[in-house]
Fold this protein.
Amino acid sequence: MPNRITVKRGFASDNNAGVHPKVLEAIAAANEGHVIAYGDDPYTEAAVELFREHFGKEVDVYFVFGGTGANVLGLKAATESHHAIICADTAHINVDECGAPERFTGCKLLSVPTKAGKITVDQVLPFMHAVGFEHHVQPRVISVSQATEMGTVYQPRELKKLSDFAHKNGMLLHMDGARIANAAVSLKATLSAITRDVGVDVLSFGGAKNGMMYGEAVIFFDRSLAKDFKYTRKQGTHLSSKMRFISAQFSALLTDDLWRKNAIHTNTMAKLLAQELAKIPMVEISQKVESNGVFAIIPKKYIAKLQQQSFFYTWNEEISEVRFMTSFDTTPEDISAFVALVKKTLR
């Protein structure tokens, strides 16, 4: 037997969390016998049907390994290389995907500055001057993150305004939903109410940040965009041979509202963490806590010392802003211990 590794929960990222026990049970249950590979199996069929229960019978659903793949391939299905994708400057596709969206779609990303991670129609308008001018890339997609990289959440009316503008101008609305469960819970909304019902055309649906081991879904509300997606996914190296192990995880997540229960807990823990940190002198909560991200400004001289005890990320070096993320397995005891550490360090 290998030596047991001792680890502890922290607040660096919801990616750092383990796997929900019900998801592990689903993986184990799928590990019986042989089924056809590459998604032609009953587990994948069942998972797709569950997605259609949540999003509508008219959607097309494809499973991929990770979030960057979901974003890149979903955007590629909606664009040509002379197109542009408009997004917030903080968007994951702009900051944290190593240029993959631009490399594999051939499109140019046009970013707009934001304070809270959300873009508006007024910020998109200046890019419309390029429409029809052959020397400029042509705006094709508005991409939003829900929840945003700043932990904030788009209201349904904000998304509808963006989609109406996009569709009126021959564009599409793409949503990076790596934390869509947290957004839906924050809004007390169904998944369809903040996607299909507000005009989203392509959605990256996150699983890994909400209790899964790995796996994301690309959902097409505009099914014409999915016409050749099975080839795009294969060429993009995201066609899983043993897809049943992704599919089974999604079935667990979408059964008995596990996705919602996990997100409720995660969001609740974030609010508790923010509430307790806000009581500490020299700590300033810098963003609205609307999902599972807590952003705070802490004197720079204390950050490295805190990170040695409980690692987290510095978000904005210039203003000494850091980010804490809660997860489905965060406990009140974890928060109490961390808050005590912060108090002791900043004393």
Observations:
- The longest strand covers residues 138-145.
- Residues 258-346 form a domain with the Aspartate Aminotransferase, domain 1 fold (CATH 3.90.1150.10).
- DSSP finds 13 helices and eleven strands in the chain.
